[in-house]
């Protein structure tokens, strides 16, 4: 997929990832620390995580196509391209957290009392992965924005 509606697909897809990945990270952290949110959002998070995992390689592939359309690359564009190689790991991390939270939800729905150790472990993992993924997406997006729009001086 190289173009959508006559525009480079990367320009459209990357905005989806830039919005969905941090939103998903926030929702996963919210679900990790607030059981009522987990009960209501666990399946939405799983669907969003699957969407991010599917769209991320498409976005990276479209970006590689766009990168290869140019004969000369600025250093910041090369930085963006190098950082984008990590995007799938951020997406997979968010998917793993969503799956773990879905399993946690199923366990809690069958148990008389929530498992404190499980709740703490999942919360620590969700916060760690959420911060890591959000930071990564911001760093990738920042380099891409600088490559397109330049730096502010």
Topology:
Elements: E1 3-4, E2 7-8, H1 9-33, H2 35-68, H3 75-84, H4 87-110, H5 116-149
Antiparallel strand pairs: 1-2
Structure description:
The chain is mainly alpha-helical and 153 residues long. The protein has one domain (10-149). Helices cover 83% and strands 3% of the residues. The protein contains 5 helices and 2 strands. The chain has a two-stranded antiparallel ribbon with strand order 1-2. A hairpin with a 2-residue loop joins strand 1 (3-4) and strand 2 (7-8). Helix 4 runs antiparallel to helix 5 (116-149). The protein is elongated and about 65 Å long.
Supply database-style keywords:
single chain, 153 residues, mainly alpha, two-stranded antiparallel sheet
